[in-house]
């Protein structure tokens, strides 16, 4: 009786969750996955049963990263609240069987539907769309075997009312574009391979019966992203041919992202000339060959631009200021700017300039002043070397951009000029010289006492000051200007890594420690930082950046040894919110100690390790998978034999697939000749977001889709 009275007294003094107002409870419940709300939470009590079915919670259902959802849960969800759903996002639900899509027909009031990455045949698509008369926004994949002639008249009637379409093409086809006669927004992702699985060369010609012409008269946004390959280029030209005949009057965003060389043709030149005469743009991205050496930018007219991408163009800073910014015109509307690989964009001219020459700080200053509201800025893949002029360092000028949320910089741009001149470059292959106690190669010591470590930080450095001024930064990429991943896809394949820039030789642990000032950091990429000696700065980041969700580390320190392993393991023990981890480092040993440390990351969902001559311990991997219940993706491309890799992959799938329906495991020798065949079977969501290395800052306009 005494125990009961004490418990009742505690309850009377405590706060009962059900005593909160409905508004507060609805806000709390908005963070719970919809499947849990409908199938579990609402069964707990009457009040929650009512709140969980509130329109604010059932209006939009997001399943795109609900890796625990299976076909039975989707079926029950659609049965219970299907009529209340107006927006449904199932993007990337690759593990759900195609029959799951049949249950979407219960959502009679759907306005927006995203099925990218889902298995949908043309017959199933026809049946489903025939019942969705209110649909206005659709995202689908077009796979080999798609046949537009199988679409019913009711399906085509629905498509005729769709104003927003996102279409990912895995085969040469117009897909459903010709049926969408009211299109205002068209997003096209070309993922067509040049060769079939049998090794036959594919053609970019459309299949018989696909001669219908797309309808672009109402188009406002056109976006096309091409994976490498000539077939993708051939097919996108067919889509553009209609635009070249008649440019939509309301077009205000025209974006084409194409890796490598994508030559301009007579048709595309006519299109660009027509755009220069008839439209005013708010967003622009073009292949580099369409801009280089042409006076196009001088003739294009802009309204209130919010996104520019001149990635990999030879555009000089002089042209950038004169033709885009109009000599310092107020561009407060610009929120996202991608100058990745634009090696001369901060120099007055490019004709006689070397890529390694110092930048013209006045150009960057004009850019910062004119575009003061930038939220996303990408300056990676170029040598942006600051001069010795006081107050004109790149980091000092960028510190004025107080609204930045994401930033990508080359490693050589963040070094102090004085430090890079006075300090001799560190040879990556040498073991750092120390006095006193001997240091073991590969397991370096680092300051355990963070107070002592703080004394070693160069708090007066320009990069330290930049990190201190960008307190609300959420995404940061520091990538070596000559870095090339061992698994490239969107860039030309270069297996032999180039040496880092001379200016980058002094960038190491103290610069990494400066990043720990970013309290709200969610995504961090560090690649080719040659002067990492112990990785001590990583521990600071683990302790201070408690919101970190995505971490990508590549080629840090000396290439022959993983000098930061001890610090990395200490860092991981503090990363409770980490969901995605990508490591690319030669000779990486994925052993028991590493996986034991990684097991502290209780929220981890996806792991990718790329290591030439790297090793792994199968037992350690299995123990890790058993302890980290949220992990649904495990990709390892190491130096182990094909037999070891296959056996481990089969063991993981056999042991955990039943409890984790979304489990995707790929363990394969990195330098095996069949690697490309293995890669093509990886779900696009994982391949694009983590497995393949690339800079993602300002890659697309913000809020391009959901």
TrEMBL record:
Domain F-box: 14-61
InterPro entries: F-box-like_dom_sf, F-box_dom, FBXL18_F-box, FBXL18_LRR, LRR_dom_sf
Organism: Illadopsis cleaveri
Protein name from the UniProt record: FXL18 protein
Signal peptide: none
An individual GO BP term: SCF-dependent proteasomal ubiquitin-dependent protein catabolic process
One Pfam family of this chain: F-box-like
A GO cellular component annotation in the UniProt record: SCF ubiquitin ligase complex
Gene that encodes it: Fbxl18
């Amino acid at each position: 009786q005494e125990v009961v009275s004490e418990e009742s007294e505690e309850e009377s003094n405590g706060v009962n969750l059900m005593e909160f107002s409905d508004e507060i409870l609805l806000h709390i419940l908005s963070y719970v996955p919809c499947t849990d709300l409908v199938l579990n939470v609402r069964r707990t009590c009457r009040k929650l049963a009512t709140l969980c079915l509130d329109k604010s919670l059932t209006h939009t259902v997001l399943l795109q990263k609900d890796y625990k959802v299976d076909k039975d849960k989707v079926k029950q969800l659609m049965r219970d609240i299907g009529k209340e759903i107006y927006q449904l996002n199932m993007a990337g639900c690759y593990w759900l069987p195609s029959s799951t899509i049949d249950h979407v027909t219960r959502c009679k009031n759907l306005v927006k539907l995203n099925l990218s990455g889902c298995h949908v045949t043309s017959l199933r698509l026809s049946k489903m769309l025939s019942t969705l008369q209110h649909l206005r926004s659709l995202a689908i994949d077009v796979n080999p075997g798609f046949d537009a002639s199988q679409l019913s008249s009711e399906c085509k009637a629905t498509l005729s009312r769709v104003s927003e379409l996102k279409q990912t093409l895995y085969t040469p086809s117009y897909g459903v574009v010709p049926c969408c006669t009211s299109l205002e927004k068209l997003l096209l992702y070309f993922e067509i391979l040049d060769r079939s699985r049998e090794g036959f060369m594919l053609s970019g010609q459309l299949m018989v019966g696909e001669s219908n012409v797309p309808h672009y008269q109402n188009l406002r946004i056109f976006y096309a992203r091409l994976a490498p390959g000539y077939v993708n280029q051939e097919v996108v030209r067919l889509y553009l041919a209609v635009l070249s005949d008649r440019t939509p009057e309301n077009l205000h965003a025209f974006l084409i992202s194409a890796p490598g060389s994508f030559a301009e043709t007579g048709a595309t030149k006519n299109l660009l000339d027509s755009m220069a005469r008839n439209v005013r743009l708010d967003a622009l991205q073009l292949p580099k060959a369409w801009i280089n050496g042409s006076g196009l930018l001088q003739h294009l007219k802009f309204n209130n631009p919010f996104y520019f991408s001149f990635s990999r163009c030879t555009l000089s800073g002089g042209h950038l200021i004169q033709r885009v910014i109009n000599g310092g015109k107020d561009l407060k509307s610009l929120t996202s700017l991608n100058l990745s690989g634009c090696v001369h964009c901060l120099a007055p001219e490019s004709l006689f300039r070397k890529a390694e020459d110092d930048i013209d700080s006045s150009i960057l200053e004009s850019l910062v002043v004119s575009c003061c509201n930038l939220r996303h800025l990408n300056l990676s893949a170029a040598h942006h070397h600051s001069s010795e002029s006081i107050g004109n360092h790149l980091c000092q000028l960028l510190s004025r951009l107080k609204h930045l949320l994401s930033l990508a910089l080359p490693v050589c741009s963040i070094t102090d000029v004085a430090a890079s001149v006075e300090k001799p470059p560190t040879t990556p292959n040498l073991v750092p010289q120390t006095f006193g106690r001997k240091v073991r190669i590969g397991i370096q010591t680092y300051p355990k006492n963070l107070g002592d470590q703080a004394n070693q930080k160069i708090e007066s450095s320009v990069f330290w000051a930049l990190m201190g001024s960008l307190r609300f930064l959420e995404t940061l990429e520091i990538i070596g200007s000559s870095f090339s991943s061992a698994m490239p896809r969107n860039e030309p394949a270069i297996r032999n890594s180039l040496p880092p820039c001379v200016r980058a030789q002094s960038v190491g642990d103290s610069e990494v420690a400066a990043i720990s000032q970013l309290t709200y950091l969610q995504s961090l990429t560090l690649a080719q930082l040659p002067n990492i000696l112990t990785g001590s700065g990583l521990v600071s980041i683990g302790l201070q950046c408690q919101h970190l969700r995505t971490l990508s580390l590549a080629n840090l320190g000396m290439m022959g040894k993983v000098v930061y392993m001890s610090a990395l393991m200490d860092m991981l023990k503090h990363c409770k919110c980490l969901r995605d981890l990508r490591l690319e480092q030669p000779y990486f040993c994925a052993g028991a100690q590493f996986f034991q440390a990684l097991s502290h990351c209780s929220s981890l969902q996806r792991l990718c390790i790329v290591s030439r001559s790297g090793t792994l311990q199968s037992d350690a991997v299995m123990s890790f998978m058993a302890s980290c219940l949220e992990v649904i993706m495990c990709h390892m491309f190491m130096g182990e034999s094909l037999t070891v890799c296959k056996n481990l992959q089969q063991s993981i799938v056999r042991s955990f697939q039943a409890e984790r329906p979304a489990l995707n495991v790929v363990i394969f020798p990195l330098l095996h000749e069949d690697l490309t065949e293995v890669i093509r079977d990886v779900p696009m969501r994982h391949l694009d977001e983590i497995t393949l290395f690339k800079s993602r800052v300002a890659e697309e306009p913000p809020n391009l889709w959901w």
